[in-house]
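Sample entry (182 residues):
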Amino acid sequence: MINTQTGKGFFTFEQNAELIDASYNIAKKYGVKLVHETHRGKFSFAAHITARFIENIPHLRLGFDASHWCVVAESYLENQNENVNMAIKRANHIHARVGHPEGPQITDPRVPEWEEAVNIHLTWWKKIVEQNKNDGNDLLTVTAEFGPFPCMTILPYTRQPISNQWDINVYMMNYLKQLLTN
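Predicted structure, serialized as C-alpha cells:
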C-alpha cells in the first residue's frame, strides 16, 4: 500500500482532483492499494475541504490523520462531525498521531495532560476500525507516528527532546494493537 500526501492546499479543486485521478489510475494499473493522507498543505488540509473531494470522487480512499485538521480548525472538530464521519467512511489507513487545537502533535500520549486529545482521536480510530470491518476490508494499516522536531517539543538551546520518540511510538503501537484488535 502507498500512503501519499497529494496535491497542495492552494491548487484548485480541479488540479487536485486531476492528481487524485492520475494516482488512482496508476495504482489500479499496478494493483497497488493507495490512500491519500489528510495533511496540512495538501488537498486534504481541512475536514470541510476534504468533504468536497469525498463527495465528488467515489474512488478516493484516505489515510486518516486528523491531527492536522485539529490544528487547521483550532479545535477538536466538534462542529464538523459530518465532515469527519465522511472521511472515516473512506479511511483505509490510520496515521496515529495525536494532535490538538494548537499543534499537530501532543508531547506524550501517556501523560494525563493529554487524555482528552488521546480519547478524541481514539474515538475516530475505533470508528475507522469498525467501518473497515463492516466493509469487509481485509487490511487496515496503522502507523504510530510521533515525529521528531519540529513536531516534537525540545528543550531550548539544547535541542534535546522532552520525550523519547522511540518509546512513545512503541507504546502507541502496542496500545493500539491491544485496543483496536479486541
